[in-house]
Amino acid sequence: MSTAMTIALAALACTAAALSVAPVDVRFVEFFKMPVGAGGLEASPRLRELDGRRVRMAGYMVREDDDLADDLPPSAVTVRWRGFAPDRTWRPGLVRVTGTLCAGTSREADGRLSAIHLLLDDRSAEALLPPAKDSP
Prior knowledge:
The protein is built from three helices and five strands.
């Protein structure tokens, strides 16, 4: 079995296990130990505890094409979901999402590094989609 297939299967298993439990509320301020020490940012015990678990978060979306997207804080969460293009679903105001939290640095398709990811539940992803054109 290839490494990519193994990683994909592990991610599916993690997501399936997370979906079977109620989400835990988490806030951005819980991600890193405070105050920041001489060694820089360190993941908090809370972030490590929630890695791979189903969580619920509230925050604001950043447009990928906005210059501010280059200056995001380390606690910014990259939201991922299957089959939906984030640049087409941006909306102003506070959004609440539920999904599986994954802690660990990875390189995004645009070359940026991100440390925290949320794989949205299908219901959260659908709520972020614009209404269908034939909807009132």
